[in-house]
Amino acid sequence: MVKHQPLQVYERQLCLSCITGIYGCRWKRYQRSHDDTTKWELLWSLILLFTFCLLLVWFYFWWEAHNDYNEFNWFLYERSGKWSDGTVPILATTAAGFTYITFLMVLALCHVALGQQLNLHWLHKIGVTAALLTTIVGVISVNQTWSQEWDVIPISFQATGPFLHIGALAAITALSWIVAGQVARAEKTMFQVVVVLLYLSVLLGLYLVPLYLTSPCIMDPSTLKPRPKVFGHQGAPMLAPENTLWSFQRALQLNVTGLEADVAISVDGVPFLMHDPDLRRTTDVEKVFSDRQMNKASFFNWTDLQQLNAGQWFLKDDPFWTANTLTTREKNLTANQSVCSLEQLLKLASYHNISVVFRLKKPPPQHPCYHSWINDTLEAVLQSGVPQSLVMWTPDEQRAQVRRVAPGLTQTSLVKRDPWTLQKSGISRLLLRYNQISSSEIINFTRNNISLTVYTVNEPWLYSVLWCSGVSSVSSEAPHILSKVPYPVWLMSPNEYSLIWVSADLISFAVVIGIFILQNYHMIRYRMSGMRSYNPEQIMLSATVRTSSRDVNVMKEKLIFSGQPQ
């Protein structure tokens, strides 16, 4: 005769099964363990943590580098010869990898909180390794091709630092529940001491981080300087093809106070607007002059340049993903743009009485205008009839001669020098990339009557930081975005920030102390009730067992064979 005797009954533990199943493919209860994690798995946990931290920095870098996506794409074009938005695959893989690694980190923390042994599945180990290696390759690639962009991280901290600090403080405070649970369950005093000291060190460091955080937006609002003027960098290149008349007209519609352009010299001495060394990206030179498409732009004469279309590429390549927002009229105007001369730009600026700054490219030695490029450009400026005070002259070559011929030009430097040297050279203005100057240097130049124009500023957070720093003007590819920033994104007085900082620290400390007390109280309570060890699985996922309940399942059955042979 066979008798069935229930060996053990248990309630459903779907949450725990999902956590251990997804992380380590341990879906069954008998596969789980409360034993200490092996050293090999601890190593993989550290690799997972390192990958998470690296991806977090990588993700933050690309989030803040949005200001310079067009610059990055141009770097790629310069190396490959084909235009494409290289940020799209990078952002997609970064977002996917960061989401995946973050998910694994959450599962690992759940294992620790529940007292489960960490046992990362081999497929996840492959995924973590792939994410780590891919990110390392990406970091090395950026460091080799776009190293100057790393400066965006410390600069962005001036805008995001106070908020990142509060977020990090909230995360570390929440982790105190897991840390306190580990300390309460630990049987070795040394382990308890080490864990507590390590956690408190991290917490204390976060409490003191604001002492080293600086932001120009933490200031007395009454001392805020006037809103920086906005120059249209190549016009409004997000709304119209760069360096064309239509682009500059679009910028003027957005009430910019100045225009910035790139100028090259044609073979016959006509200064014209062109950013790239050749014509392939922004014109149809491949169609009109297929045998000369690889030639430098400065080796075309003005007659040939006028035959090129400089607008159709914008609709085709859609470099800023804005072509679909244009009206039919705007698309027609865009498609019919031609190469613009410097004289045409200056006449437009003169009509609207706005400033113009241009960066003049020196032609190669074999160019016919190699020795006359400064005079040719200066002659175009004087013939345009634009008031000299509206033109910001940037070339350093023959600057003294230019000052004698046209003393009214605003002498501008593209190289950062000390204020005394600039004043000695008659230079009253600087045009610098935003990462080339600090807040203290901005104050120093302003005190010495050196005006600053900072490029390229497309994001409201960067515009706000520079505004609070006292910059007088910025050059932007996105004047339509900056026109919607009438006030810094955030601004608070030092007293307000100190109050927020101290309050956040006190609340965090009180929560941490409360959690440690609560965890120890639970530990004492369960030990007094006869439990030999603190088992989070039993406390959190188990309840009173009722054999008559429909929710109770038989986990195993033992077959007992007994009776007389028949």
Strand order of the largest sheet: 2-3-5-6-7-8-9-10
Mean pLDDT across all amino acids: 89
Radius of gyration: 33 Å
Structural class: alpha/beta
For the sheet with most strands, the description reads: 8 strands, parallel, barrel
Shape: elongated
Percentage of residues assigned to helices: 40-55%
Distance between the termini: 10 Å
Tally of individual helices: 21
Work out the strand percent.
Answer: 5-15%
Total separate domains? 2
Q: What is the number of beta strands?
A: 11
The residue ranges in which pLDDT falls below 50 over 5 or more consecutive positions are 7-11, 536-566
Question: What can you see in these coordinates?
Answer:
Helix content is 51%, strand content 11%. Strand 5 (355-360), helix 14 (373-383) and strand 6 (391-393) form a beta-alpha-beta unit. It is elongated. Residues 7-11 and 536-566 have low confidence and may be disordered. It starts with a strand and ends in a 5-residue tail after the last strand. The strands form two sheets. Strands 2-3-5-6-7-8-9-10 form an eight-stranded parallel barrel, surrounded by four helices. Strands 1-11 form a two-stranded antiparallel sheet. The chain is α/β, with parallel strands linked by helices and 566 residues long. This is Glycerophosphodiester phosphodiesterase domain containing 5b.
